[in-house]
Design a protein that fits this description.
The chain is an all-alpha fold. It has helices spanning about 1-15, 15-25, 30-50, 55-80, 85-90, 95-105, 115-130, 140-160, 170-190, 200-225, 230-235, 240-250, 255-275, 280, 285-295. It is globular and about 45 Å long.
Length: about 300
C-alpha cells in the first residue's frame, strides 16, 4: 500500500504542470520549458552521484530517456497546441490498455481480466472529466497525442523489463539528462528567444523541475520497479484529476456534475485495477470463474 500511495503521488505532481505553466512560467515557450524541467536537475543529480552508465546502458538510457521524457514531452506539447486539453487527456487515458497489451508480448505478464474492464471505465471517466465534444479535430494533433501515449506506455514496459543498474535516483537523473539532450535539437529547430526570467518564473521552473519532474519521476520509476506495469499505468489517471481540481480551486474554472461523475469513475477504475492484483489469493472462486469465462471467450 505504501508503494502504491507514493507512486500515485507522481501523477498527482504532474497534474500541477498546467497551473504552474499558465500562472508562473513565460508564455509560448513549450520546448524550452520541457528542456529546463528535465535537463538541469538531471545534470545536477548525476554530478552529485558521480556515476555514469556503462556498456549497453548508454543506448538503453537514451531510449528510456526519449520514451519517458524527451519524445514524450515534445509530442505532448505539439498535441496540446493543436488539440483541446480534454481530447489529449482522453487519448492519454488509453495508456493502461496499451501497457497491458505491450506487457503481454514483451514481459509475458498476464493481465487480470477485470483490469481490462477497469481500463474502459477509466477512459469513460477521463472523457466525462475533461472532454469537449466541440473541440477542433486536427490530424497532426491526434497523431502526436497517440504517439505520446504510446511513448510513455513503451517507456513503462521497457523500464520494467530492463530494470535499473544503479540506485533509483541516479537512474532517474540519467533519464532526465538523456531526455533533455533529446530535446536540444528540437529546441534548436524551434529557434525560441530566451525571455527575461522574473522571480515568479524562477519559482515556477524550480517547482516544475525539482518537484514536478525530479521527485515525480523518481517516485514513478520506484513504482515501476515494485509494481506490475498495469498497476502503474492506472495511477497515471490521477494527473487529469489533479489538473482539473486545481483549475477549479485556483482558476475559477467551471465544475459540473458530469465532472464529479468522471472523477468517481476514474477512482473506481483505479481501485478495481489495484484490487485485481490480489484477487487470486483473496477471492479464489471469483478468479477461477473469470479464468473460465476468459477461456470460453477464446
Amino acid at each position: 500500500m505504501k508503494t502504491l500511495l507514493l507512486t500515485a503521488l507522481a501523477p498527482i505532481l504532474w497534474g500541477t504542470t498546467y497551473l504552474t505553466t499558465t500562472e508562473f512560467l513565460p508564455p509560448d515557450q513549450p520546448i524550452l520549458v520541457a528542456l529546463l524541467r528535465a535537463l538541469p536537475v538531471g545534470i545536477l543529480i548525476t554530478l552529485f552521484y558521480r556515476t555514469l552508465p556503462k556498456g549497453h546502458w548508454w543506448w538503453r538510457i537514451f531510449v528510456l530517456g526519449a520514451l519517458n521524457i524527451g519524445l514524450f514531452f515534445a509530442l505532448l506539447f505539439v498535441a496540446a497546441y493543436r488539440l483541446p486539453g480534454g481530447m489529449v487527456a482522453t487519448i492519454g487515458a488509453l495508456q493502461p490498455l496499451m501497457v497491458m497489451t505491450l506487457s503481454k508480448f514483451v514481459l509475458h505478464d498476464r493481465t487480470p481480466p477485470l483490469a481490462i474492464g477497469a481500463g474502459l471505465v477509466g477512459i469513460l471517466g477521463v472523457a466525462l472529466l475533461v472532454f469537449n465534444p466541440n473541440g477542433q479535430f486536427d490530424l497532426i494533433g491526434i497523431l502526436a497525442s497517440v504517439t505520446a501515449m504510446l511513448s510513455m506506455a513503451a517507456g513503462i514496459v521497457l523500464t520494467k523489463r530492463w530494470g535499473n543498474p544503479v540506485d533509483l535516483l541516479p537512474f532517474t537523473a540519467w533519464q532526465l539528462t538523456a531526455g533533455g539532450i533529446v530535446l536540444l535539437p528540437i529546441l534548436f529547430i524551434a529557434g525560441p528567444t530566451l525571455p527575461a526570467f522574473s522571480a515568479t518564473n524562477l519559482f515556477g521552473f524550480l517547482w516544475l523541475s525539482v518537484i514536478g519532474t525530479g521527485l515525480a519521476y523518481w517516485l514513478w520509476f520506484r513504482g515501476i520497479k515494485n509494481l506490475r506495469p498495469f498497476q502503474i499505468s492506472f495511477l497515471g489517471l490521477f494527473s487529469p484529476v489533479m489538473a482539473v481540481l486545481l483549475g477549479y480551486v485556483f482558476l475559477d474554472q467551471g465544475f459540473a456534475m458530469k465532472q464529479w461523475l468522471g472523477i468517481g469513475l476514474i477512482l473506481i477504475s483505479i481501485i478495481i485495477a489495484q484490487s485485481t492484483q490480489y484477487m487470486p489469493t483473496r477471492f479464489p472462486k471469483v478468479s477461477i470463474l473469470l479464468d473460465h469465462f476468459k477461456l470460453k471467450l477464446n
